[in-house]
Amino acid sequence: MFMDSLLLSLNRKAILPDMEFFVNLGDWPLVLKDYKGTSNRTFPIFSWCGSTDSLDIVMPTYDITESTLENMGRVMLDMLSVQGNAKEQWDKRVAKAFWRGRDSSRERLKLIDISRKYPDIFNCSLTNFFFFRDEEKIYGPKSDHVSFYSFFDYKYQLGLDGTVAAYRFPYLLAGGSLVFKQESKYYEHFYNDLVPYVHYVPIKNNLDDLVEKIQWAIDHDEEAKKLLKMVDYFPMKICYQKCILLL
């Protein structure tokens, strides 16, 4: 179901020869650079997520593809709907870092510890436990799900890896909040066009500088606001343009 609409769209625009190719329907990249298998061959596998230690050909994620193909056709989560439903302007947003998600990385659990230690600048909690169910008593209880549009009642958004790259990242960039992105080996199809401290604020993979950088943004609101203005939704344009070109 994730590939049919993409292939049908391509088939309406071009005459495709009889061909076979590999599509990875999981999240993790599969063609590792240091693969030492018996044949020691690499394959042209298309994946939604790439990494610095893999050779997969990265294509737009399934939800970005769907929102591009269905743009304006029906109500769904896409970048335009995020822009249209982010209610508050910067000056009226809460000066805290906001995050909701499931327990799909150890760093996300660390974020809960940080949030509890600094409740005046963080509003973060887990909505589901799957990978660390035995630690729910430590990092729970689970919080209710929140409308994605309500994320942007807050000035600062956190982009943290899940099992791979967090596929919400392009939507976070479109919401008019300042995005703090975890350094990671994983990437989506448009990441190479992004510039740190222009389109987002990088934070260490282990989150050790997260508190410092959020506090800086709070203490330097005008500078943070100017940084946000530099984005000018460039990531949204690049993300969609690249997806349209591929479709």
Summarize the structure.
The chain is an alpha/beta fold. Helices cover 32% and strands 17% of the residues. It folds into 2 domains: 4-77, no CATH class; 82-239, Glycogen Phosphorylase B (Rossmann fold), CATH 3.40.50.
What does this structure look like?
The protein is of the alpha/beta class and 247 residues long. The chain has 2 domains: 4-77, no CATH class; 82-239, Glycogen Phosphorylase B (Rossmann fold, 3-Layer(aba) Sandwich), CATH 3.40.50.2000. Helix content is 32%, strand content 17%. It contains 9 helices and 10 strands. The chain has helices spanning 4-13, 62-69, 79-85, 106-117, 136-139, 169-173, 210-219, 221-231, 234-246; strands at residues 22-23, 45-47, 50-51, 57-58, 94-102, 122-128, 154-159, 178-182, 186-187, 201-203. The strands form 3 sheets. The chain has a 5-stranded parallel beta sheet. The protein has a 3-stranded parallel beta sheet with strand order 1-2-4, with no helix packed on it. A two-stranded antiparallel sheet has the order 3-9. Helix 2 crosses helix 9. The longest helix has 13 residues, at 234-246. The radius of gyration is 19 Å and the shape is globular. 32% of the residues are buried. The mean pLDDT is 87. It holds the Pfam family Glyco_transf_90. Residues 15-247 form the Glycosyl transferase CAP10 domain.
